[in-house]
Design a protein that fits this description.
The protein is mainly α. The chain has two helices and no strands. It has one domain. The longest helix is centred in the N-terminal third of the chain and has 63 residues. It is rod-shaped and about 100 Å long.
Length: 107
């Protein structure tokens, strides 16, 4: 009977230790998710600001165009800027995926 009580106490202490370890790990993951959310939100806002600035530049170019060739040049510049935005986005995405892949390997 005494052995059963000792075994029960040991099991309860083990369960408490394991539970606290998991809860602290979950708290850490929650904090990381919040930090990642804030980071991605800032990146999204930055991207939108860049797009707005480029669109305003394009609008100004089109507004000041006096000939068809000027309008073509504006469209070509806008297309090139869009291509550059796409390349930057793809580069960030590849870096993010690689970083995520490496962090999963460490876990």
């Amino acid at each position: 009977m005494k052995l059963f009580k000792v075994f029960t106490v040991v099991m309860l202490l083990s369960a408490a230790t394991i539970t606290s370890a998991f809860s602290s790990d979950n708290a850490h993951k929650g904090k990381m998710r919040e930090e990642n959310f804030a980071k991605f939100k800032a990146m999204a806002i930055e991207s939108i600001d860049k797009k707005i600035a480029q669109m305003q530049k394009n609008k100004s170019c089109i507004s000041s165009a006096s000939k068809r060739e000027d309008l073509k040049a504006c469209r070509k510049a806008a297309k090139e800027a869009q291509k550059q935005f796409k390349e930057e986005r793809q580069k960030r995405r590849r870096e993010w995926k690689e970083k995520r892949k490496n962090s999963k390997k460490q876990d």
